[in-house]
Structure formats: structure tokens, C-alpha cells
């Protein structure tokens, strides 16, 4: 087996375990207990959890985000994005990414709560950059100068703030979230034309993490979530 094949096999095993654990995360949070319950569902030995995730929950959340990002790219590849205007491409990418986790809001909240802990902010930034970078690539971005960074920082702000809004959106078909998304895109589309773009982009990039920190404060503990689900 080649190194590439071995890495691909490990990725698939990790994703299978994370997928199984998703049934338990709403009750136990992103914890080793959730991963062990997922392993039991797959009839895996408990030692497999430590083998597949030596980095613990941090590594499991990375797997979850990257797995969903890959699904997003697959979905976007099936669409005729080149025929759309750039703002439509970006809106479609964000909608696609959020729609993939439409039935996993409690799981996403728990992941966001973990990622907004002070020690995890660098990881949060890295994962967000990975997501928006894939969105821009799918949208056909070919920039190589400072615009490359600016576009990603701006989209990080749009995506992050829309994510937080979407998590509490009860409107039919998330219509309110998509209207919010369109307004945010409309606002930032003008920013590259303004002097001091990078400075402004930085402010937008910080938005999801400020909002995420507020969300983390009101996150229910696993015990409270368990009581809510059992009520």
C-alpha cells in the first residue's frame, strides 16, 4: 500500500467514526465519550478511538470540518457556477456549506463553542480560512496578489456572521438567513474599492469569532442538552 493510499484509508476511517459519533454529540458534546459511543455503533475496539484520533477532540473536529468542506466542493462541482455572477457564486457556496449541516445545528454549536475557547482561536481561524479558500476556488478565483488574502478575510466575515445568524434562524427554508447573507455580500462587495481594504477586511474577519464568543457563553452544557432532549 502506498503512502497516499494509506493516508486516504486513514482519512476514511476517521470520517466514518466521526459520522457515527455525530449521533451522540448533541447529547455528550464534542467529547471522547461521543467518539467512544460512535466506535461502539461501528463495533470498533475502544483502542481504535485513540489510534484514529491521537490528537483527541481537536482532531475529531478538524476531521468533521474538512469532511464537510469536501462535500461542499463536490456539491459545487455539480453546479454551473461559471454562468453566475460572482456574488451569486459566493452566496451559493455559503448556502451549500450550511445546507450540508442543516440537521446538525446542535453539533455545529458544540464545535463553535469549542473553537471559540481562547486556546483554540488559532485553529478556528485556520479552519475558517480553509473553508472560505475552497469557496473562492470553486467560485473561480485566480487572484495571486494581496486580493487573494483580502477576499478570504472578507468572506470569512460573511460566512462566520451568516453561520451564527443561521444557527438561530427559524424561518421557513432559512429565508431570513439567505436575506441576511445577501445583505452582507452586498456590503463587502464594495470594500475592495475603498482605500485601506486590508484594515477593513481584518475587522470583517474578526466578526465570526466575536459572535462565536457570545454564542459560547449561552451554549447549553451537555447535561442541559440531555435534559432538553429527554423532556
Automatic annotation (TrEMBL):
Key words of the record: Lipid-binding, Transit peptide, Ubiquinone, Ubiquinone biosynthesis
Family to which the UniProt record says this protein belongs: Belongs to the COQ9 family.
Protein name in UniProt: Ubiquinone biosynthesis protein
Gene source species: Thalassospira xianhensis MCCC 1A02616
Keyword Cell inner membrane included in the entry's annotation: no
Example of a GO MF term: lipid binding
GO biological process, one term: ubiquinone biosynthetic process
Keyword flag Transit peptide: yes
Role this protein plays: Membrane-associated protein that warps the membrane surface to access and bind aromatic isoprenes with high specificity, including ubiquinone (CoQ) isoprene intermediates and presents them directly to COQ7, therefore facilitating the COQ7-mediated hydroxylase step. Participates in the biosynthesis of coenzyme Q, also named ubiquinone, an essential lipid-soluble electron transporter for aerobic cellular respiration.
Pathway it works in: Cofactor biosynthesis; ubiquinone biosynthesis
Domain COQ9 C-terminal: 121-191
